[in-house]
Amino acid sequence: MQLKSHTLVPDRDFREIGYELRPVLDPSGVPVDGLFNAWITLDNPAQYNSYTTDAVKELILAFRQASMDRRVVAAVFTATGDRAFCTGGNTKEYAEYYAGNPQEYKQYMRLFNDMIDSILRCDKPVVNRVNGMRVAGGQEIGMACDFTIAADTAVFGQAGPKHGSAPDGGSTDFLPLYVGFSRAMVSGVLCEMWSAHKALFYGLVNEVVPVLKVDDQWIANPLVVTDRFLGPFGEIVYGDFRTGDDRNRAKEQMEGAETDHALLDEAVDGLCTKILMLMPDCTSKTVNSLRKHKQRHWDLNAITNREWLGLNMMTEAKAGFRAFNEGPKGNREVDFIKLRQMLAEGHPWDDELIRAISPQYAHAD
Q1: In terms of Cα–Cα distance, which of 89, 37, 99 is closest to 317?
Q2: CA dihedral in degrees (120, 135, 61, 264; nearest 10)?
Q3: Pick from 51, 78, 223, 344: CA 20 to 30 A from residue 144's CA?
Q4: Do 327 and 357 meet the contact criterion of CB atoms below 8 Å apart?
Q5: Bridge partners of residue 151, in order along the sequence
């Protein structure tokens, strides 16, 4: 029988991202003939694997292609290098093109929403292989996935309120489902960053794997407290970042370490093998039934959030993204106190206000 193709763009030549079919392994570790995992890879390491508009378009097509390919068992969503899975939208593009241009950003957010939909509606289970920072929009596309396996050097968090946005590309929908309301507030509002171990403890990820080697021996991330103990108020302390002299010693230890993703890839392959050894339609039905809890919130808010995010490009996002893109190193946030003071005085959102609060103009006069 001649099979029909249901792929929107057959034989797509991906340029902004990577798309590769890798053999799925049977339980003994042997590649299975004719069956694959689709590895979808963000490939912008110089900008922490942030996604450009063109990359978003390709991600939509990539997940659709993996979904429709009869040979694909699972989709693995990851990125190049060891510094970041994804830090969200490309802030240079945001600052130089979308800032102050709400109509264009609204169009961009339509693509972003389609990207989230393409993950949530993929017919194959989606595994997020987190090789580094998963922050801001990177956190949102990561939470849209079904499973997360992370390097123990990864960092998880949001940045919206610090840089002029709200995490309305999925985090305000997904975070409470993963970690509960109170912890979602800490992450979404206060922009507190969590280590991979903390994310595991909170239920945000499924597994954490060491990726650092010293003298050819695996070590846990020395920057993070990996022993559980009780704090002064009886709380469990686990996965916190070290501070002070402990942090300095940890940095010294890391200077002699090499990064090796062998165990990370082994864990991802192992999970995909578990998926292989299941009834495919029953697996798809179960995955989609569990996804409904995320989809219910996402579908309720995605369209109106897109409208607000577009308009926000005229005010706080315009100031925040330009400050991040143009501000001097170590000072890429607006003057929050000055901003609040000027707004309390009734000052309108205009170029005068943005100039007054932006670090890139601090010494221009």
Answers
A1: 99
A2: -90
A3: 223
A4: no
A5: 209
Residue 364 has pLDDT above 70, yes or no: no
The proportion of the chain whose per-residue pLDDT surpasses 70, expressed as a percent, equals: 98
Here the tokens at position 180 are 């509960």
Pairing of strands 147-151, 194-195: unpaired
- Residue pair 133/126 in contact (Cβ under 8 Å)? The answer is no
The answer to whether residues 164 and 284 touch, using CB atoms and an 8 Å cutoff, is no
Backbone angles phi, psi at 296, to 5 degrees: -60, -45
Encode pLDDT of 65-81 as tens digits: 999 999 999 999 999 99
Decide: pTM greater than 0.90: yes
Using alpha carbons, select from 349, 321, 297, 320 the residue that is nearest to residue 168.
Answer: 297
Residue pair 94/102 in contact (Cβ under 8 Å)? The answer is: no
Distance of CA 50 to the CA centre of its chain: 9
SS (H, E, C) 12-67: CCCCCEEEEEEEEECCCCCEEEEEEEEEEEECCHHHCCCECHHHHHHHHHHHHHHH
SS3 352: helix
| Distance separating alpha carbons of residues 239 and 251, to the nearest angstrom | 16
242: tokens are 């070290």
What pLDDT is recorded for position 11? 81
Helix axes 316-326, 280-312, angle to 10 degrees: 100
CATH homologous superfamily for 17-211+260-312?
2-enoyl-CoA Hydratase; Chain A, domain 1 (3.90.226.10)
pLDDT single digits (tens) 234-260: 777 789 999 999 999 999 998 889 999
Starting at the earlier edge strand, list the strands of the sheet with 258-259: 217-219, 212-214, 258-259
Tokens of 174: 């997904």
